[in-house]
């Protein structure tokens, strides 16, 4: 299931003082394997200091680019993002999982008006979505509100300005800077007034088909709540978290004893016993079962599986809809078994 392929780094481009764009060459024999929809991400596997790390990074390039580019902002010292910003160079080979993810824009023949709100590295999937929206129909429009500390720390700034020039009168950027007063930008953060100014004033004559939000959880919640207060249907609001609020692992009640677990991965079935207080994915990996995973924090969707017998309860869920949960889907990195037996299927998702 965790099907990694060796990809060669084509080039590395600095975006800011602490962020780079890494482009991978896609061999012809892997073109279909690495075909993607705008908004998806790839997972990279790398061993550093004797420990295997897996990190998910959204794709910034267009699906028609013939290569895959990701944006990596340095957020750790000695971890993968630090390595990516200081060590990776053209010609290096990395282990990469094919694209996945549910935060996507699927182009149609109809013109679409899209509004997007991003902060920091949350721009990475948004710029890919913007490219696709604008290229898919000559009448489509894209409005972007993008928050950063300053222009110096704005990822893909040059690319966004070029896109604005290429699609004049169809691509509109509202830069927001919180620490520097910059020309052609608003000062402050993305807040309720920013959302209302953008949608009810600056672009009041535009009817938007969908809204895409990407960045920190607090920003996403604020924008989403503001949109809902303006009667925007929930199904038109799409979001992806890049950082989530820390939530203590508050165990569901009555998690005493063991659960007999059966796991299906790549048409193979594995059985083992686990403590109900443990997390399903942790127990699966402890058994050396090659289940898919990436962030292990409930932010990506790599570890989704279907419960086909028994029950499991998630500590945190910011991805699955109520209907998907009703169908039996769980994030195994957030789930505790609550019944004597549990069967999960990673293939049936």
TrEMBL record:
Domain FAD-binding FR-type: 2-106
Transmembrane segments: none
Domain of life (superkingdom): Bacteria
Name of a matching Pfam family: NAD_binding_1
Cofactor requirements of the protein: FAD
InterPro entries found in the cross-reference section: 2Fe-2S_ferredoxin-like_sf, 2Fe-2S_ferredoxin-type, 2Fe2S_fd_BS, Beta-grasp_dom_sf, Cbr1-like_FAD-bd_dom, FAD-bd_FR_type, Flavoprot_Pyr_Nucl_cyt_Rdtase, FNR_nucleotide-bd
Keywords: 2Fe-2S, FAD, Flavoprotein, Iron, Iron-sulfur, Metal-binding, Oxidoreductase
The keyword Iron belongs to this UniProt entry's keyword annotation: yes
GO molecular function terms noted in the UniProt entry: 2 iron, 2 sulfur cluster binding; flavin adenine dinucleotide binding; metal ion binding; oxidoreductase activity
Residue ranges of every copy of the 2Fe-2S ferredoxin-type domain listed in the record: 259-349
PANTHER family: 1,2-PHENYLACETYL-COA EPOXIDASE, SUBUNIT E, NADH OXIDOREDUCTASE HCR
Protein name as catalogued: Ring-1,2-phenylacetyl-CoA epoxidase subunit PaaE
